[in-house]
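Structure tokens please, single chain.
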Amino acid sequence: MRTLLLVACVSIVVVVGYLAVFFILQHSREMQTPYVPPPPPNFSGATISYQDEKGRIVEREKRFEVSTELASPELLKKLPAPPSEGTTPVAKSGAP
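Here you go.
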């Protein structure tokens, strides 16, 4: 019985040790990649409430505005022109 308990404890310690090593390696890989901030949101919202003379809320109006500009004009100037109508796509070869 004691040997079974000893084997179980040793195996748990080994598994936890391996997990700790993997977490440390993953954290060191994440620290090497530079942080890229997320783009600013392209939407906004507002709520307008109307009250009557007694102070009760009569009507609520919710407004949402969404911008469809997904890329800045400077970035669009850097991109290559799209293919014209008369061109054919390049066939992909079987080799990687």
